[in-house]
């Protein structure tokens, strides 16, 4: 039975990552209205007429439906056969975030939402993926949170600040996409040829996101240096913070590529997808570090 539980936990994480990626594709291709105002049908049909936008949107809905079934099975298996409280919390969080996300997606189709609300949709997908990833890790060696050395209070505070601030930066990035503001800053690292451009309209939105991303890099650099200073090189805090730093660097580079590819549709779409997927890895590592701080010297 443990083999089946692990399999479904892994499928849940893979499925949530796929939902996140496909959601980014829907946004980038502006296919959210590909099925009109109908939900769960697509333009009044169970099998929609073939158009690119309807195919993308309906495929996204189909994947969400399949993954939801996987999550329900995983939820049953975990509560029935797994005694660890963290596994139950993780699967519950995954299911809850997925349901809220699905309801918000349906509401956005029937009743058009503001960009502020639509940006939250990606944030919920990210939380659902993080919960599913943590659940998957429970059934690996990384699910053993026992430590020989206490985690310093200052590091715990920094870790939690980093994950919350990362979520804010992600939300700003989603807001940039949903307000179609990517073209507000032409060029990188300068914005429209200026160090500090006029902070209005799309330019202001993109520039604020860029500054927030730089501050996130500084924050994670400090987190890694603190981990490296106080813990052994093999410690999971050091490994996790190192990978978080690597991912935030990749996120910044991919953001630059998104800017450089504006005007080239295929390259812009691909770069935007990669940009969205990298942040999943970044947020996942930060969430894992925070879990380590919660279970510091706690017994199951």
From TrEMBL:
Compartments, as annotated in UniProt: Membrane
Pathway membership, UniProt: Porphyrin-containing compound metabolism
Pfam families in UniProt: COX15-CtaA (PF02628)
Record keyword Metal-binding present: yes
Topological relation to the membrane, as annotated: Multi-pass membrane protein
Keyword DNA damage applies: no
Signal peptide interval: none
Residues passing through the membrane, by range: 7-26, 62-82, 89-110, 116-139, 159-180, 200-223, 243-262, 268-295
Key words, A-Z: Cell membrane, Disulfide bond, Heme biosynthesis, Iron, Membrane, Metal-binding, Oxidoreductase, Transmembrane, Transmembrane helix
Protein name in UniProt: Heme A synthase
Lineage per the UniProt record: Bacteria, Bacillati, Bacillota, Bacilli, Bacillales
